[in-house]
Amino acid sequence: MKKEIHPRINEVTMTCVCGNSIKTSSTSKDMRIDICSACHPFYTGTQKFVDTAGRIEKFQRRYAKTNKK
Predict the structure, then answer these.
(1) CA end-to-end span of the chain, whole Å?
(2) Can you tell me the distance from the alpha carbon of 52 to that of 64, in angstroms, rounded to the nearest whole number?
(3) What is the pTM for the complete model shown?
């Protein structure tokens, strides 16, 4: 193998927006991620809606009208 052509592997702390931190190895320095296994709905079994424009309520009202017919 040729020397000094491969990227350096560093021990990295990945930090999620929920506050969870995971130690792993990567070629980058530090990582900030949006979602991790501690806050992802598939792993936690809970469902969270992030809705600032009221689109979910608008959809539910529209769906309720068509469901009654």
Answers:
(1) 70
(2) 21
(3) 0.48
Confidence tier at 68 by pLDDT (50, 70, 90): low
CA 69 – CA 60 distance, rounded (Å): 15
Side chain identity at residue 37, one-letter code = S
- Determine the pLDDT at residue 48: 66
- Residue 19 tokens, joined: 């506050």
Residue 57 domain-assigned? yes
4 in a structural domain: no
If DSSP codes are grouped into helix, strand and coil, which group holds residue 4?
A: coil
HSE-up (13 A, CA, CB side) for residue 9: 4
Which CATH number does the domain housing residue 52 bear? 4.10.80.400
